[in-house]
Specification:
Layout (H helix, E strand, L loop, with lengths): L2 H17 L16 E5 L6 H14 L4 E6 L11 E5 L5 H11 L3 E5 L5 H9 L4 E5 L2 H6 L8 H6 L4 E4 L2 H10 L6 E3 L14 H11 L4 E7 L4 H14 L4 E6 L5 H10 L4 E3 L12 E3 L6 H7 L2 E4 L13 H5 L4 E4 L7 H9 L3 E3 L4 H10 L2 H42 L1
Parallel strand pairs: 1-2, 1-4, 2-3, 4-5, 5-6, 6-7, 8-9, 8-12, 9-11, 10-11, 12-13, 13-14
């Protein structure tokens, strides 16, 4: 144990008790027989990545068990081969009991919430430990500033560090990870299937729209409708044939949307009534369930709803739009998909507006076909690269698991 970690263990328990009571190690399930991979994922915005990793690992090893540690046991819905446990406090006693009980073969850290003793003890006991990072760990490690040298010592304990981009690779090396210990994988978010749609329906509506410019307000909350209407009216001054498709977050409220739109003097067609977008239609109200994949395919620009209102537990996944070639516009409320929005933003595939007044200006700027095409291509690259990065990560984890089992058999 190095000097920085020694100082941490002298003073961190006192600070922890001042902030909140210790969460001692208390397992609620028995340790299953056979190999066990431990995934540490306390941030609920890692849910999609966690699920994909578990699914890909299980496809390769059907009888594999996965231990998931989170801040509480209500954070995730997991497959049957997963054991969900509350992560213990980072005291030496709890950490030692944790490893003695679970004896994981491989440990995988999903981005931030670095816990020095858990990481150090994994390295000490010879458990291969991975860090899957997109820059979050660098932010989290800054909290160790009060412990001189601790960040470098902890990050240096990881056997494998998989980073999403060149900037993160450089930052991790500067923070203490050995140059040969960092590998660029590309993004690790989402390799999921594209949302489905009825191809014949898509072709029929596309023929009706012909060359009209189209944008989509996807799964918006009713409280966002005023901002959407104002932005569309302003954008139509520049492009009078501009068509807005509105997919309400609650399709059952379609008639409420329709009344509001008509009261604003807009010419609408309502899908739930079997109506189609005609030449004079200004707003097509797509108030039906299960067709969002169709609208993303038809609209080259999508405003992601529920990002102008504070609704942290729900909201459309922006990768669904990006994967189908639709440029993403969104407001400042990013939860629960903040990592995905930021990923698209860094790639130049999304535009964030700080308030409703910016929406019309952003729409008008994206009417330039060259810019929209560049952003759509960046969106497609960002979403499809996730599958390759995830495949690489899973392959490395499985290789470490094989090595670990072979070592145990040889002893």
């Amino acid at each position: 144990m190095g000097l920085p970690l020694t100082f941490y263990n002298l003073f961190a328990p006192v600070l922890s008790r001042l902030r909140a009571g210790p969460n001692q190690f208390e397992p609620t399930q028995p340790r299953p027989d056979g190999p066990l991979i431990w995934l540490h994922a306390v941030n609920t915005d890692n849910r999609s990545l966690l699920s994909e990793i578990v699914s890909n690992l299980s496809d390769q090893i059907p009888d594999l068990w996965v231990l998931v540690t989170a801040l509480d046991e209500t954070s995730y819905e997991l497959p049957d081969n997963c054991i969900l446990q509350t992560v213990p406090d980072d005291s030496l006693e709890s950490v030692q009991e944790f490893f003695k009980y679970w004896q994981p073969n491989v440990a995988v850290w999903l981005m931030g919430n670095l816990r020095p003793n858990l990481i150090f003890h994994a390295a000490k006991t010879g458990v291969p430990i991975f860090l899957l990072d997109t820059g979050v760990a660098i932010e989290a490690s800054r909290s160790f500033g009060m412990w001189p040298g601790l960040r470098a010592e902890i990050l240096g304990r990881f056997n494998h560090v998989l980073a999403g981009d060149d900037a993160t690779v450089l930052a991790l090396r500067n923070a203490g990870v050995a140059p040969g210990g960092v590998q660029k994988t590309g993004v690790l978010e989402h390799g999921g299937d594209a949302l489905p749609c009825n191809a014949a329906e898509r072709d029929a509506i596309a023929a009706l729209l012909d060359t009209r410019p189209v944008w989509l307000a996807a799964e918006i909350h009713l409280s966002e409708l005023d901002a959407i209407i104002a932005a569309h009216k302003q954008a139509m001054r520049r492009a009078h044939r501009f068509l807005l498709i509105i997919a309400p977050g609650t399709p059952d409220e379609g008639n409420i949307y329709a009344e509001k739109l008509r009261a604003e003097g807009l010419i609408i067609a309502q899908r739930s009534l079997g109506e189609e977008p005609e030449n004079e239609t200004q707003v097509y109200l797509a108030d039906t369930d299960g067709e969002i994949g169709l609208w993303y395919r038809l609209a080259p620009i999508s405003f992601i709803g529920q990002t102008l209102v504070d609704r942290p537990d729900i909201g459309p996944d922006p990768f669904d739009a990006a994967a189908l070639g639709s440029v993403v516009i969104h407001g400042p409320r990013l939860a629960p998909h903040q990592n995905l929005f930021r990923r698209l933003g860094r790639a130049g595939a999304a535009r964030q507006i700080s308030h409703s007044g910016e929406l019309a200006q952003t729409l008008e700027s994206l009417l330039a076909p060259t810019l929209a095409a560049q952003m759509a291509h960046a969106a497609w690259e960002t979403t499809t690269a996730g599958a390759e990065g995830l495949e690489m990560a899973v392959e490395l984890i499985l290789r470490a698991l094989d090595d670990s089992e072979a070592e145990h058999e040889g002893t």
